[in-house]
Every structure is written in structure tokens, then in C-alpha cells.
Amino acid sequence: MELHNNNNTCTTFDISRGSSLVQDKLSKSRRVRNKSVDFDDNLLYSGNPRLIYINDPRRTNDKYEFTGNEIRTSKYTLITFLPKNLFIQFHRVAYLYFLAIAALNQLPPLAVFGRTVSLFPLLFVLCVTAIKDGYEDWRRHRSDRNENNREALVLQLGGFRLKKWKKIRAGEVVKIHAHETIPCDMVLLGTSDPSGLAYIQTMNLDGESNLKTRYARQETASSVFEGCNVTGLIRCEQPNRNIYEFTANMEFNEQKFPLSQSNIVLRGCQLKNTDWIIGVVVYAGQETKAMLNSAVSPAKRSKLESYMNRETLWLSIFLLVMCSVVAVGMGLWLHRHKDKLDTLPYYRKRYLTNGKDKGKTYRYYGIPMETFFSLLSSIIVFQIMIPISLYITMELVRLGQSYFMIEDKHMYDSNSGSRFQCRSLNINEDLGQVRYVFSDKTGTLTENKMEFRNASVHGKNYGSSNLTDDLSEEHNIRAVLRSRWKLKSEISIDSELLDMLHKDLPGDERIAAHEFFLTLAACNTVIPIVSQDTSSGHGRSESWEDVEAIDYQGESPDEQALVSAASAYGYTLFERTSGHIVVDINGNKLRLDVLGLHEFDSVRKRMSVVIRFPNNTVKVLVKGADTSMFSILAKDTERDDQIRQATQSHLTEYSSVGLRTLVVAAKDLTDAELELWQCRYEDASTSLVDRAAKLRQTAALVECNLNLLGATAIEDKLQDGVPEAIEALRQAGIKVWVLTGDKQETAISIGLSCKLLTADMQQIIINGNSEEECRNLLADAKTRHGVQSSNRKKQNLKRKKNSENGYLDILDDTKSSNVLQRLAGREELAVRAPLALIIDGNSLVYILEKDLESELFSIATSCRVVLCCRVAPLQKAGIVDLIKSRTDDMTLAIGDGANDVSMIQMADVGVGICGQEGRQAVMASDFAMGQFRFLKRLLLVHGHWNYQRVGYLVLYNFYRNAVFVLMLFWYILCTAFSTTSALTDWSSVFYSVIYTSVPTIVVGILDKDLSHRTLLQYPKLYGAGHRHEAYNLQLFWITMIDTLWQSLVLFYIPLFMYKESSIDIWSMGSLWTIAVVVLVNIHLAMDIRRWVFITHVAVWGSIMITYACMVVLDSIPIFPNYWTIYHLATSPTYWLTILLIIIVALLPRFLVKVVHQIFWPSDIQIAREAEILR
Amino acid sequence: MTDTDQERDRNKETAFYKFTQQTLPACKPVLTPAWVITIFLFTGCIFIPVGLVTLRASRSVVEIVDRYDAECVPEPFRIDKVSYVQDDSIPKNCSRFLKVHKYMKAPIYIYYQLDNYYQNHRRYVKSRSDQQLLHGRKYHGTSSCQPVEFNNDHAIVPCGLVAWSLFNDTFKFIRERAELKVNRKNIAWKSDRDHKFGKKVYPYNFQNGTLIGGGKLNPRIPLSDQEDLIVWMRISALPSFRKLYGRIEEDLDVDDVVVVHLMNNYNTYSFSGKKKLVLSTSSWLGGKNDFLGLAYVFVGSSSLILALVFMLLHLRYRR
């Protein structure tokens, strides 16, 4: 109990409160719907802010509208487990089907199976799932309990006392010490650092391991030091998922000031490098941003599975036809024997014996009802025609496949120590059919490890040719100076530029260079972390006594590279707080007051900082993208123009070799300008509504008439193996599209360096600035390169597909690589010179929103390569959608950053790269891996295998169940349509559960047609997936015809064998059971392409287990089938019949297979023979 | 010791590693022409001899089949056979003359064959209580026996349609005025006699109702010795079936004439079912059935032909 007296709290806001509550409710429902991961979406509920009275939890919570800090990730409690778990389980259609069948069987006229037997499959599945769910939930309970019972220091009764996490409420003041985890979302009030600085690690939240800075407002930081009794009011937005935004303001000591993202620490983060912090809880428990973000991304469904559902529909049609045949047969039979139903020895519709029931009808409801019941009971008998177990089998198989993908050492990234991750278990086989790959560039194709390469200062280019690889003499002189700051990475330095900086020459050039590096050092959000103890450093640093290691932590690798570069040239960023920065210029520490900072945003595409020098001059330093910078430069003198042109030519030069460029500019601010800006800035940054837009307007005040200082060029290194991977994907018939936020020139240069673009390609460049321009450009490109309109294109595509179907001959005398080239060459001839489409984001805005979409589509699909530059995150998704909605082809998106999330979620398959840009992409992806080049292996090897395996698995499972059901069906025709099954109830149930299930799973996981070496060597083999070779409608029908034949053989051979003999129904059933189990297992064995020990155990073991089960079942005297198997086994006819069934049933299949493989081999078959018979 | 252990560990590790990399050494069968031809040749070489042997065995079986259901109804009753067979006052005896056309070696099995008789009808199959057959009156869960469950509130032993419809034609065989000895013991499975049908269960109230379906049982003989019932209750799989009646343990010579005196009690006329009497010798394969042998010979010879075809194709179009 808190017994605080809060007389001093502001009461002015109480009036607005009552009315806001109603709106609160409304907006809550609105907010829940708004679950998109759109980070730009800055929704503010200015009408109903959340009111937090600092250190007054009782008043804060007096309406009980805020949740406590207790979290619950578990789904069940002991009491709710059974009903809730069952309820959730029965959401699956499969279980409902099981339930309906079991329920039908409980009706007396329909009791086909024994009561317990019919419930067995359902209970089995329910129990297994319930145990799994229960175990998982128990673990969640345990972790919840641990989490909730952790303790934190909370201000109570005038002092900080330990309190359990779950008891913490909004409005309380909490103190956290270093290395502790933050229990809830808190606004910082004060930290151990006098300037209110705190470092946190957000690893649990977004996976970034670098430290981030958070600030306590100076106003509160000081008073926290004075005493514990802080009071105030925070008005903040309602809880939301956006971890990169926080908008609030605080009323404190009669002052009102804004709070932003940098003032809040989130649940799950850890405090580092700071002794303690004190904060007030604003969001607790389920309302914290971490908890709101824990929702999973929507599940995807594999394409093969949707085809499979179509075929399942066919199967249900077969099922209905069979059931109707039985029902109609029953009806006709009854009709014909209508008069005899009281005299037939085997059908009595009345009770026969003396007693109370005498003369009443016994389970006879008239012919129409009997017909109907016959329909229902045949559904029960034929239930496994719909392979419900297939869904469970597929889940298990995919689990196994994922295991092998995860364990693959070739997809293990030893640099980052990250192995392959399967985040989605539903779409393994889609990897084998991908036709379009949409790739991000930065961090995906490239390493996102930035290196400062070139600088253009005052119209002069430095660092292009005369990079000092070896240390020159001059360098050695500076060595002492430089080595005071040990940097993480080595930076090559242009000695000429360095000299110029140290010469005390007056002049524009010198000043420009000075300001240039000052801007690099100051205009950023990088945090320098100085570690004093050198002993913990590397052996090299020990040689210098006074070396201090500086580690630059920042969110943007570009900025880190620039700051490191500035440091190498003697402008070392040394200290940064919210109010000032300290830059060490060649040993002289310069303290600069930061008056304001306009952070980088995607609209302005630049960043600026307003600083006051010790001599009271105020400067604005700006850096930004060239397109956004040249328009706001001052247009004065001829000299400026000259510099500008020189810089511009340098920029084109840089981007043509694939470097990332930034333009740097600065200007002095006059007092009047400063005053106006300061006033607006304060207003904008305290605003709760439209803060971003207001800040943008404010920024425009100072970001104008700038003096150009120069430009920087940073190299973004290509990842290992990217060109090879892209080439392999291209050969595999996969189109690689690159979507990047970079400039056109950079994009093209990266395209060239990763062999995406080749010199012989004709480039179509579309970069219009209006709808009309884009339309013209598209039309022009179309006519010039002879692109057909979409319907003619389809024919062409068909033709192309046919030509792709031309099998490649690897066994040919000529070297196979030649063949591949020849094939490629032939294709090229057909489409003339290969085309490459380069399109920029501006044009895409006009094209994607207007009716030009189809034009773009027809051009883009006829191009070999598509490069989209300057695209926004949502445009990436738009492009993916363009292909996805217009073709049946599988799309794959690969990226590493938060800007790729929408694209990854839109594509059929989303792949995340565990890179430097955080884990947003990985969290949204279906598969995650360390390097782009693993994509080649993922698609060509694992994709191929998975597709082949799952395709076969589905067909085989259809066959396996259908052959069994058809066999029962033929027999029912011989029993006066009375749905008698010759098989015992238990055998019918065990057939799909025990007798035949294990081999399909094992084969679905382990079978493999080609070795990974062959698959990687001949990427064309991937085309099997494009051509739907492993699973298509034709194969389905062939399988069904084969199934029909096999079921006829299964039924009729024993029938002819035991015609007019004394065989009893259970012996016959026993024979059929064994025959069908052996048959389907041998059928499987015939198609297995790789026999390992486990496969042998599974296949032969299944037959063995079937026999064992039959022996057990036939040894129980109360079953009518008692001792059957022992009798049968002694008769040679039995064994000869089984052998005959197997051979005759499989002969056509074997024949077709052999003829196909020998005379019309698929390319997989050829490659396989080449591989094995080499 | 430790060295070998370590080595084994290492082997295990590498085996596991290979397993995870999916590179375990494996058998990868390829259907090369040589293999295909071998498989077909092999099948042919196995199947044709087996087929010939079974065919020979089947041909060695001598079988006499005599349909008697129509002929055994006296002329005046042939218009309404059902009322004939249901009328207890009319004697049902009938004589058939069977000519032995080939030497038959003892034991000669006597079967009765019923056609168009759906013993495998679901209503029929279910109408029995295996527990009651074993435990008798002590067992009360006989509801599965409906519609033949109770007689005056006592459960019928044995209950159910199956037992109720017990076949009750009887046969006597006379050769040259001497009655042939027919062994009617051990015609049912020993396992059924010993474990399924109770040794202390007596059919004390069987066929006492108003409607009598078929044969009666001697209430003083326990069920385990009622072999006709046991045979009958091994429900047949197909609507035309034979059931063992007994064994003649004397040889029959060519041109012997066997006179069969039978009681034509069982009503198959209501559903136009046929009744046949079958005398058959047996071979190691069982009764007379050419199908197995023919099928084997056919499959064997077709695979030989296929082997030949593939061989020719392989020589002609060598890849």
C-alpha cells in the first residue's frame, strides 16, 4: 500500500479527463485493428492521452483502465485447460471431420465399427495434441511465473523497496541498476549520469546488439538528485506496437516539455554502462511495447497444399460417388427383396423371438431411411478416402525437413555464428518452385559494412587513386597523434587531404575541409563509448600506455563509417550528451552546444544539426542525399557553381563504381534566423499532434541556402559469393529482381558488379517524373524492343515453357556445360538481346497507382533483369504484389532490414538475412539465414528436395488411402450393399495410423533424388519445380488409375482364389489386410531413390509390425477372428496369393516407370544416372 | 579399451554428422536396362514353374458337384417350394445318385454349398455374441444378438441370427448297399472348439420359439462339441460358399455310384438360393482351383516376353 500524499500534483488536467474516457474506449477498438507494422504511421490520439501521475499510482489507476505489470503468455489454467484446449483443437477441420465420423458411428443404425474402436483415432490425435499443448503451456506458465516474480526497486513509503514485477503499476517510480532488465516501459526521470544519459541494450526487442542512448530530461534529472518526492504529470499516447516512436509531454514543476523516443526505456531492454536510472512507469504488463509486439506474423500456406486441397475435393467427390453407389444399391436390393425381408435367413426386419419385442421391427426404418443410413454408414467405412492424416503427416515431414535445413553446415554462417532458421513450417516445398526472387540490396547483396572510400572537398577529389596502402613517412609523423584513439576498423587515409588539414593555410579550401570533417563528426547520432582500461583490449593496444579505445555505437553503419573517417583525419567525436558534443580536433577538445537536431527522415532525405561554437557563432551542419541537397544550396557566385559541378561529376563517378554518396553542406545562422527557428523548434518538438510534419517545416527554415562543402563516398562491399549465386539462380530459371533504396547509378553499378547486369544487355531505363512521361517511356520501350501485349505474351510464354521442357542431355558426348550454354543461347535468340529494366521509385509511384500496371508487367516479365531503385518499403511490397497477383508463379523476397518487412510478408516465401540492420526482417520472415549466397543452396538443393519429397508424399498418401477404400468398396458390392467390412475393426483403424504411416514420413524426410553436388552443378534441374513435375493434376489422375487397378487386383485375385471355397470372412479380411499393407509398402519401396538404414527399418519394419499386430489381435479369444492368422499361415495358397497380388498389382506401374525412364527420361533421371553410374 | 571406445564414438559422431548432412552412404537403385531385364527374367523363371506345379496339384483334385435344391422337391410342390419346405408334415427325404468319374482317394471331403446366401450381410454378421458362446448363460450383454436375443425373457443360448439359421440338411452316403463311413468329427477348427465355444455351455433353449430358422441342437451336448454349429458360425466371406460336412474315409473307384439319402430341410427357396453337395479330394494346395496356376503361368510368361522385348529394344536403341 502506498500512502503518499499528493497534494502538489497538478489538477488542471482533471477536467478533460472524464470526457476523454469515452473516446478512449472507442479508440481502443480502433487501435486493436491497426496492427500493421507500419512505422511511418504515427497515430496520435490527441483527444485522449494517457495520463500518468508520477509517483501516484493510485490516482493514475483510479479508473482501473491500465493493466498491471503481470504478464500472461500462457493460454490455459488448470480449470480451463480441458474445455479450452478441446475448443481450440476442434477449430481444425480435420478434427471436426474425425468427430463427425465418430459421432455418426455412435448412432445405433450406423454402428459400423465398435464404439471404442471408432473413437480411437480421434482420441489418439486429441491426446497427443493435448499433451503437447499442455507441456508447452506448462513451460510458458513457468517462465511467466519466473518473470512475474522478479523483483525491482520501487519507490514506496519514501524509499526504494523491492517489489515483485507483477505488482508494479503505472505511475510508480522504479529504480533500475546496471545490467538489470527493465520491467516495464518507463519514462526516464534521472540517471546516475549528471547529464541524464543512460545506455540500454535492446537485444531482446529488435536484436541489435549495439548500445542505444536514452536521456532523462535535464529538468527532471536534477530534481531526482535532490530528493525522492517527485510529482508531475505525463500525457502520452495510448499503448501501441511501434517501438521506434513515443510521443508524450510532461508537466513538471510548472514546466511543460516534450518527451520522445529517446526519453523512454522499454520492457525487456537491459541497462548497460550506467549505474542506475530512475523512471516512471507509463505502460505496464500487456500494454508494454514488447508485449504488443510479440504477436506472430500471419501464417502462409504452401501452393502445393492448395493444389492438394483441390485434389482432396476430387477425392471427396469419389467418396460421395462410392457412397451413393452403395446407398442406391442398398435401396434397390431392399426394394427387390421387399416381400422377403421376413423370410430371409440373413436379413430379418422384425424381432423373431417370443417376448415383449415380438413382431416389432428391428432397426428397420423403411426403404428410404435405410438407403439414407446406408449412405451414412458407408461414409464411416470409407472415411479415410479423405486423407486427414495427411495433414498431420505433412506437418511431421516438414518438421524433419526443417531439421535438415537447419543442420546443413553449408548454410551455417561462421562469421556471425548464425545458423539457418525455419520460422515457418508450412511452406518448405514452395522453395522448390520459386520463379521470382526480389532482393534487397544493402545488407542482402552487400555486407552493409561501410568503408569510407572517397571524399570530394571543395570540388576536389581525394582518396580515389592515391590511397595509402603502405604507411608513408608523413603518415608516421601523424601516427602518434592518431594512435591516441584506437578505432575498431582501419581506414585508409589520403595523405594529401591530411596534409591540407594540418597546414595552417588560410583559404576557402582549408576552411571547407575543416567544416567538412566537423560536419562528419557532429552531424550524426553516433555515440562514442570510451573504454579507459587498456588491459582488456587487444595485445596491440598494450604497447601504448595512454591509448583510449573508442567504440562508435550507432544505428546507421553509414554514420559510423563517416565518424570513424573523421576521427582518422583528426576530428574525433569524443563525447555526446543531449545538450552538447565534444570533438577532439587534433588534440584540442572543442565543446559544441547542440541547439537542435533534425533527424534523418525519408521525406527530406537529409539530416541537420544546429550547433553553437564556443565563440558564440551558430552554424547549421547538414548532410544528405544529393537529390535533396543540390536544390537547397545557395546560388551565388561562379566559384560556387564550379565547385558544384565538380562535386556533381565526382558524385556520378562515385556512384558509377557502386559507392554510396552523401553531400555535406553548412551555413552560418544569423541571430534573427536562429531566434525564429528556435521558437518554432520548441513549439514543434513539444507538440503532440503532427510532430513529425511540424519538425519538417521547422527544418526547412534552416536547411536552405547552404554552402556546399563536399561529398563523401562509402563503399558497401558485396557479400561473398553473390555473383555466383545470382548466376546460378538465373540458370535455374529464376528471375532476380533487385529492389533498392539507392540511386539509379549505384544500383546499376552494384548490378554490374554482382553480374546481374551484363554488358551485352539492352537497358530500358524508366525514370519519369509524371504519369505522362512514364506512359511514354513505357510505350517507347515496348515498341523499340518488341514486347508483345499481355495476351500474345501468354502464347509466347507457353512456347517458352515448351522450349524449357526440352530435356537436357548430360550423358551426351559433348561436355554438359556446353549443352547448357547452347540451350541458353537458343533461348536468347528467341527473345533477341536480353533486356534489363531499370526503373526508379518516382516512376513506380505513377505506374503502380495508375492503369500502367499491366504495361509495366508485360515489359518487366520480358526482361531478364529488373532493377528498381529509390523505392520505398511499401513500393517493394507493391512490386511483389504486381507479380503475385498477375501470375501463378512463386515469389520469394529476401531482405535484412525493417524496410523489407512489408515485401517479405507479401511474397509467397520471405527470407530474412540476419544482418546488421536489426532483426525486424528476420522476425517477419519464413526462413532466415546469414548470407545471401545460401539462397542458392536453399532453393536449388533443399527447395528441390523438399518439393520432390512433399509432392511424392501427397500423391502416395492419396494412393495409399484410396486403394484401401476401393478394396473395401468392391467387397461391399458382394455383401448385398450392407457395408460389411471383412477386415477387423482394429485393422481398419490401424491401417493408416500404425501399419503404413511411418514409411511415408521417413521417405518424406529422407528420400533424395540427386546429390547436392549435382543439383548445384546443374541449376537447370530446378526447372522441375517450375514445370510442376512432382505434383500436378495429370500425375494425380495417373495415380488414381493406378490405384483403381491395384485395388481391383487386391480384391479380385483373392476372390477368384477362394471362389466357392470354405474360406471364412475373417481369413479373407486377414489376407486383404496383409496384402494391402505389403502392397503399399512395396509400392513405396519401388519409388524410394535412396535407401539408408532407417528407410529399411521403416519399410520392412512396418510389414513386420503389421504381422505382429495381426498375431496379437488373432490371439484374443473373444474376437470372432480368433486364431485366423495361424490357420492361414500354414496354407501355401495364402502365400502364393499374396505374391501374385503384389506382382500383378505393381506390374503396370513398374512397366510404365521403366519405359518412361529408359525411353523418355526426365532431366532429373538423366542427372541421376549420370551421378550414380559414373 | 578406451581407444576403441573413442574410435567408436568418433565413428558414431561422423555417422551422425553425415546423417545431418544427408550424405549417409546409401543404396541408390537405378533401373538400368540390365536390371530391368534381369527382374523380368527372374520373375518369369520363378512364376512359370510355380504355376505349373500348382496347376498340376489343382488338376489332381477330383470333385463331384451335385445341385439338389430343385430336384429334391417332389413334382407336385414345385410351384410353391417355400410352403413345401416350411410344412413339417411332408417328409423331406430325397435320394441322389452320384457317379464317380475318376478315382478318388480318401479322405474325401463332403461339403454343402449354398449360393446367393449373404452370410456376410452386416445385419447377419453382427447378430451373435462371442462372449455368450464361451460363457453361456452367465453372460448377459447379448444385445448384439438382436433380433434373436430372448425367448420369454431368457437369453437364447446360442443367441443371434447366425446360430438361429443353422443349416440342417443331412446326408447319408451308400455305395453298393453299404453305408459309407462318414467322419463328422474334427470338421471345425480346433482353436474354435477349445477356446471359443464353451465346454460347459449347453443349448438348453435353442430353437424353442415360434419361428424356427434352421437346425436344432442336442441340449445335452456342450457347444464345444457341436461342430456343425461351429462350422456354420465361421461366417463365410462370399455369398457362394462351401462348408465342411464331414469326411468319407474310404477310397471311391471309377464308376462307383454313390447314393445320397438326404433330408432337404433347409429353406433356401424363399430367396432362390441354390444348394449343392460337393465331394472333393484334396491336394497340398487345398481344393480344385485352376486360377492360381493359370495366373502364375500367365504372369510368368508375360514377364519373359517383356524381358525379351526389353532386350531387343535395348540392343536396337542403345543409349
Automatic annotation (TrEMBL), chain A:
InterPro entries: ATPase_P-typ_cyto_dom_N (IPR023299), ATPase_P-typ_P_site (IPR018303), ATPase_P-typ_TM_dom_sf (IPR023298), ATPase_P-typ_transduc_dom_A_sf (IPR008250), HAD-like_sf (IPR036412), HAD_sf (IPR023214), P-type_ATPase_IV (IPR006539), P-type_ATPase_N (IPR032631). It catalyses: ATP + H2O + phospholipidSide 1 = ADP + phosphate + phospholipidSide 2. It is a multi-pass membrane protein. It comes from Theobroma cacao. GO terms for molecular function: ATP binding; ATP hydrolysis activity; ATPase-coupled intramembrane lipid transporter activity; magnesium ion binding. Mg(2+) binds at D440, T442, D896, D900. Gene3D superfamilies: Calcium-transporting ATPase, cytoplasmic domain N, Calcium-transporting ATPase, cytoplasmic transduction domain A, Calcium-transporting ATPase, transmembrane domain, HAD superfamily/HAD-like. The chain crosses the membrane at residues 93-111, 117-135, 313-334, 372-392, 962-983, 989-1006, 1035-1053, 1065-1084, 1091-1113, 1133-1152. It is found in: Membrane. Its EC number is 7.6.2.1. Its cofactor is Mg(2+). The active site is at D440 (4-aspartylphosphate intermediate). Residues 52-117 form the P-type ATPase N-terminal domain. This is Phospholipid-transporting ATPase. Belongs to the cation transport ATPase (P-type) (TC 3.A.3) family. Type IV subfamily. Residues 922-1162 form the P-type ATPase C-terminal domain. Keywords: ATP-binding, Magnesium, Membrane, Metal-binding, Nucleotide-binding, Translocase, Transmembrane, Transmembrane helix.
From TrEMBL, chain B:
InterPro entries: CDC50/LEM3_fam. It is found in: Membrane. One of its GO terms (cellular component) is membrane. It comes from the Eukaryota. Keywords: Membrane, Transmembrane, Transmembrane helix. The chain crosses the membrane at residues 34-55, 291-313. This is ALA-interacting subunit. It comes from Theobroma cacao.
